[in-house]
Amino acid sequence: MKASQIILLLVGLVVVVAVGYMFTASESPEDYIEKIEKERERQFKYIRFNAESPLTDEQKANFTSLTFYEINSDYKVKARLLPIENKKVREVPMTDGSKERYIEHSYAEFELGGKTNKLLLLQSVKESDMRNFFLAFADETSGRDTYGGGRYLNVRQDGKNSITIDFNLAYNPYCAYNPDFACPLPPRENLLDIPIEAGEKNYSK
Asked: How large is the average pLDDT for residues 103-126?
């Protein structure tokens, strides 16, 4: 067998193995829904029972559930990571008028709602893992079905130049439950002009 034929055979074998691995390692729709539901249950238990919950004791007594959009995998997107070359520290306004310091790390660019969107990824100045980011955003549902002050996501870089954003995991800041808490407001770059009908809805007392 010629060397060129051997190379082609090896390349073909690698492709077959890679495709087979992707098939077996891929997450089924049922597994994905179960994972999101478990996270939502964990979130409910934390808000209901944890000592650091933003709810007052009176609120806890009447608290029975959180409200979410139906799970929709279309809102799980793979975004291109666009690093910011000259990273700066931004003082992000809080709901009580104070400010909190974050590093402007990069942008996440993705397609959703029939258009290309871009969100600014912030990183706490105290963050030890450089692959973890804080994402605060608002969208066309804000102030209607979802909290007017925006929602949050904790995202983690999962590729050299990519990051997965799953809006089904979007959650409310503490100030959505209790105005006595101070929460970071979404930066102007993260005010989306499309509805994100995924994740947690507004808290109703």
From this structure: 96
